[in-house]
Design brief:
Strand content of chain B: 25-35%
Distance between the termini of chain A: 56 Å
Largest sheet of chain A: 5 strands, antiparallel
Number of helices of chain A: 10
Oligomer: heterodimer
Strand order of the largest sheet of chain B: 1-29-30-31-32
Strand order of the largest sheet of chain A: 6-5-4-3-7
Shape of chain A: globular
Number of strands of chain B: 35
Structural class of chain B: mainly beta
Number of helices of chain B: 2
Shape of chain B: globular
């Protein structure tokens, strides 16, 4: 009876939103692991196998447009987002809570996954020998032929970053796919494909210029080399790669 | 003053092109004699989506240009086929809004809105594909499983009938356009992604009372009940989410059915799973089954047979026959005798890996290894969304060709007891994301087309699905494409193909002007030469096309309308 009374008083005293916020009882390693499997079924198609985004939002940033609390994430997954293509997920409430547990873990480094290199040295490689700023922006500085890396450390894990340096073609985001357009006058133009339909193709050329070509004026579009970025395995030493990975993983936005 | 001008406009338009309302059943049965009107989903009962108008033709199509736009201002996919009755267009917007427009200018005359619950149960968006008309009444199915009759002159609701509990068994919805046959409104249901039990309904157009219900899964004691293991028949799916065709001569209704449930795992439902993935021939007066043909027995790949049946009459193997041409989601074109369902021939019109042939009865000889696997099977063709889907095909009596806007697509098939999350896998067509937005942010348009870093190219549409994937596009965009295929129905031979960048979601219409109209995933609206497939005209609509064109007369002139993005674009000369 007393317990009841105390609970009653507590409930009345604590602001309603807090009191009603249910703890996620599936926020456990097992729950998140099951959530990971459910994620592949329900979410990966739009949000990417690793939550990195795609057709749907990037879920690795720790920032959620429609609420990042457990109940907020639950509501988004359970009900979908009206006016967008995010549908209600076909799963039981229990499964949705497991998804919540997993989604919250996306983008955080797995325990023990520490970069071994020297981030400060990596920055020098990035800005100097690597020539990375020609194509990549950090903060306000850099080129636009490659993805903005301002918060790449929050979005990509170490293996991914290393692979991107050694084999850039392993995963080229669609908006950075390289193509070469050969015009009827014989002029080849290399760049990234910004858009395309059956009558035209839009390109950012290697100098950053916006170009558009009508396909009737093109003799060929080459797509055999999907990344503009060179593989750095031969250009940089192993130590330099390690340092670069360290630097990239330190980039968390806000620089 | 304004109102009067509108009313006068309506009267003028009506007097120029026809007899206005009411639209009797006799007019529907002879819809080909009203070339200026578009009285039902496929224009005529035979499913041809063929316009007998020829003002816009091979010679002058190059001059075609936009005459007016209807701005839908909605987020959901615009899948509607408008109706046009003597200068007035009736149009559904997604989420069950209806508009009456002046077909010459696009000016709205009335609007009706059905309020759906906040949450409805739709695999692939809160969409609607159109209306049916009889007398003075329009008929629309809703996302919460109602059938509504609306007065075509006033936009007022006449009756509203609940077809079924929309929230039952994971969710039902009515997204397809109804079909009026005589005094009845025939309408199906969607929900094959859930453990639903499919049916097709007929309602009295006058009262809204249900006249019959045909269960697409045989009930205990009915023929073919034994084609489902255990209790799987109770939750076997087999929905009826698109529109059918009708043969007034034999008084037969033809309607396609969807996949069995669970869609991507057949373990719990051994057997053929009738009447999933089938075409049904029904008596429209009673709902009694005359015959059926199953395109994909025991399907595990979501290869619905919800395409629109195309009915043609021609001599075949020495005698005149009533035929049905069908380009199925499983990649094969079929020719059946529609008098009895006899299988006549089948021939693939896209890459396919699952059948090596057919026996005399039309049963496919299945090649092993073409089922989804837990880790993802990437070797199955056609893809998850099929070679054809719900997008309308067309048949032209001038060329005697059937036109199919087909998907050539490589995809991942993942075995899944619950639901495959990949019904709508293609990426958005246009680079709409906001430049300069923080890289971690979602795309600029929130969803309907623009969002996300992969969301630029239609052809980039193979997002990763398999567990353990590295989050990359598994396949090069070049492995998937779309094509308009011109099929000779009596042989299944392909006369020509017109290839486009991405697998399409739009349908096609052929015309007496010798043209085939359609629109691509990137929003390129095109007119092809119906004889050769040469593109004669295009317009850059720059957003996804999820609908099929219609053509009509307004003010004595021919127009072509097609939904692109959230706009209904209307073209004329």
């Amino acid at each position: 009876m007393r317990t009841l009374l105390i609970s009653f008083l507590l409930t009345r005293m604590i602001p309603a939103a807090l009191a009603q916020e249910p703890a996620n009882r599936f926020d456990t390693p097992e729950g998140a692991q099951q959530g990971a499997a459910l994620f592949q079924t329900h979410c990966a198609i739009c949000h990417g196998a690793r939550g990195q985004g795609g057709r749907g939002a990037d879920l690795t940033t720790g920032q959620y447009k429609f609420g990042g609390t457990d109940p907020g994430l639950f509501a988004t997954i359970r009900n979908g987002v009206r006016g967008t293509e995010m549908p209600p997920v076909r799963a039981t409430d229990e499964e949705v809570w497991k998804l919540v547990a997993f989604v919250k873990k996306l983008g955080t480094l797995a325990p023990g996954q520490q970069a071994s290199g020297d981030a400060a040295a990596g920055r020098l490689v990035f800005e100097g020998k690597g020539g990375c700023t020609a194509c990549h922006t950090i903060g306000r500085d850099g080129g636009t032929l490659g993805p903005d890396l301002s918060d790449v450390g929050r979005r990509r894990d170490l293996d991914y970053l290393r692979e991107s340096l050694l084999s850039p073609e392993a995963d080229v985001p669609a908006r950075y796919r390289a193509i070469q357009v050969v015009t009827k006058t014989g002029q080849p133009v290399t760049g990234i494909r910004l858009n395309e339909d059956d009558v035209s193709v839009q390109v950012r050329d290697e100098r950053g210029n916006l170009r558009s070509f009508l396909k009737r004026n093109i003799t060929e579009i080459r797509r055999d080399k999907p990344a503009l970025m060179p593989a750095f395995g031969e250009k940089l030493s192993k130590t330099e790669i390690d340092d670069l990975v360290s630097y990239l993983t330190s980039l968390r936005g806000g620089q | 003053m304004k109102i009067r001008a509108l009313v006068l406009g309506a009267v003028t338009a009506a007097s120029l092109s026809g007899q206005g309302l009411p639209v009797t059943y006799e007019r529907l049965a002879a819809a080909e004699k009203e070339p200026g009107n578009w009285l039902m989903y496929s224009h005529t009962y035979n499913g041809w989506r063929y316009s007998p108008l020829d003002q816009i033709n091979l010679q002058n199509v190059k001059n075609l240009h936009v005459k007016w736009l209807f701005q839908g201002r909605h987020q959901e996919k615009f899948e509607t086929t408008p109706l046009v009755v003597d200068g007035i267009m009736y149009l559904t917007r997604p989420e069950n809004d209806v508009f009456a427009l002046d077909a010459e200018t696009g000016r709205v005359m009335w609007a009706y809105s059905h309020k759906n619950p906040e949450r409805t149960y739709n695999c692939c968006g809160r969409v609607n594909r159109g209306l049916a008309i009889l007398g003075d009444r329009l008929f629309m199915g809703t996302l919460d499983m109602h059938l509504i009759a609306i007065d075509a002159k006033s936009g007022r609701e006449v009756w509203k009938t609940e077809m079924y509990d929309y929230a039952a068994a994971g969710g039902y919805a009515a997204t397809g356009a109804p079909l009026v046959v005589k005094d009845k409104v025939i309408i199906g249901m969607a929900g094959g992604e859930h453990p639903v039990s499919g049916f097709l309904d007929a309602y009295d157009a006058a009262t809204g009372k249900r006249v019959w219900r045909f269960h697409t899964i045989p009930q205990p004691g009915e023929p073919n009940f034994g084609t489902w293991a255990g209790d799987s028949w109770k939750t076997g799916g087999a929905s009826t989410w698109n529109t059918g065709s009708y043969d007034p001569q034999s008084n037969t209704l033809f309607w396609g059915t969807s996949n069995p449930w669970p869609g991507y795992s057949g373990d719990v439902r051994a057997g053929d799973n009738l009447y999933s993935c089938s075409v049904l021939a029904l008596d429209p007066d009673t709902g009694k089954l005359k015959w059926h043909y199953q395109f994909t027995p025991h399907d595990t790949r979501d290869w619905d047979a919800t395409q629109i049946p195309i009915l043609i009459d021609a001599p075949f193997r020495g005698r005149q026959r009533t035929l049905m041409a069908w380009a199925a989601r499983n990649g094969f074109f079929y020719l059946l005798d529609r008098a009895n369902g006899e299988f006549l021939l089948a021939k693939n019109f896209v890459r396919q890996t699952w059948a090596k042939g057919f026996d005399d009865k039309g049963r496919p000889e299945v090649i092993p290894g073409n089922d989804p696997t837990p880790e993802g099977n990437t070797g199955i063709f056609p893809g998850v969304d099929g070679a054809a889907n719900w997008m309308a095909h067309s048949y032209s009596p001038l060329t005697k060709l059937m036109y199919v806007f087909a998907r050539e697509e490589r995809r991942v098939f993942t075995k899944n007891e619950i639901r495959h999350a990949a019904e709508e896998n293609n990426a958005a067509p246009t680079g709409l994301e906001v430049v300069g937005e923080a890289p971690g942010a979602s795309g600029g348009r929130g969803g309907r087309g623009g969002g996300g870093t992969n969301g630029i190219f239609g052809a980039g549409g193979n997002l990763p699905t398999a567990p353990g994937g590295r989050g990359r596009a598994r396949f090069a965009p070049e492995e998937s494409w779309g094509k308009v295929v011109a099929i000779e129905p009596l042989t299944g031979g392909i006369k020509w193909e017109y290839k486009v960048l991405s697998p399409p979601w739009g349908g096609v219409m052929s015309t007496a002007g010798g043209l085939v109209f359609g629109g691509t995933t990137e929003g390129m609206i095109f007119a092809l030469d119906a004889r050769t497939g040469d593109r004669l005209w295009y317009f850059s609509g720059n957003d996804r096309v999820y609908a099929a064109p219609v053509s009509f007369l307004a003010g004595g002139k021919q127009y072509v309308s097609l939904a692109v993005g959230d706009v209904l674009a209307t073209f004329g000369n």
